[in-house]
Amino acid sequence: MIMALIAAAIAFGFAVMLAKEFVARRRPYTALWALALLLYGVASLVVVIGAVGGWTKLEYEIYWALGAVLTVPLLAAGEVVLLFRDRVVLWITVLLLVFIAAYTVAVLGHATYDTIALAKRLPSGKDVFGDGTPAHRLPQIVSIPAYTVLIVGTLLSAWKMRGRPDLRERFLGTLLIAFGATIVAVGGSAFAAAGDLFLFALMLSLGVTVMFVGFLRASRQRKPLPAPVQTS
């Protein structure tokens, strides 16, 4: 429980720092990443509330929607916007995120919940919603494709930035973002399914920290290359 609270504090702190970065430089991808960390923070805080006082249907809806479904699409969207830096791409991405959020809310609104499963400290979606139900499959439908986009975006960034020393920081940043997201998606999801609250929160804290370092490096201003020395 303490580790989940630490994870929430880390996510909130980093979200504020990225929000300040967005206000200062007006780069849309930093706003998307800040929102992703904000959702991670809220989801972690809800885990603390659920573990202490017992889970309610609303609390689990918030945890599932924000922690299991919507954060990875926001990370992927930030990567896409960073990669293309085009206003049309930005608006298409935002509209797609709105659709994903609306679809998630609609599915969870029609889901049924197992109250016995909610009695656990960290209930799994499989137990709460039922194996293979639309609500249980939301991460498979939404988060896994979004994670694929994130990884593909990282590879495309690597391809575009090959042989460009001035883009080294952005390249390393995108790699760290993908690595941090992998820690949360693989490690966090595995321990959440197993009901291990401590290790789930530990993976979340570690993954968010790695992603934040990646965010900072990817958004650094390019350092101009030194001008060639002219010889007479």
Task: Describe, in plain words, how this protein is organized in 3D.
With 232 residues, the chain is mainly alpha-helical. The chain has helices at 2-25, 28-53, 57-84, 87-109, 125-129, 138-160, 168-194, 197-218. The chain is globular.
CATH names the topology as Rhopdopsin 7-helix transmembrane proteins
Assembly of the depicted chains = single chain
Overall helicity? over 70%
Structural domains: how many: 1
Rg: 19 Å
Question: Major β-sheet, in short?
Answer: none
- Ranges with pLDDT <50 over ≥5 residues? none
* Estimated share of beta-strand residues: under 5%
Mean pLDDT: 87
Give the tally of β-strands.
0
**Which shape, going by the Cα principal axes?**
globular
Our count of helices gives 8
CATH architecture: Up-down Bundle
Classified by CATH, the class is Mainly Alpha
Structural class: mainly alpha
Topology as H/E string?
Answer: HHHHHHHH
How far is it from the N-terminal to the C-terminal residue, by CA?
69 Å
How do the strands and helices of this protein lay out in sequence?
Elements: H1 2-25, H2 28-53, H3 57-84, H4 87-109, H5 125-129, H6 138-160, H7 168-194, H8 197-218
Helix pairs in contact: 1-2, 1-8, 2-3, 2-8, 3-4, 3-6, 3-7, 6-7, 7-8
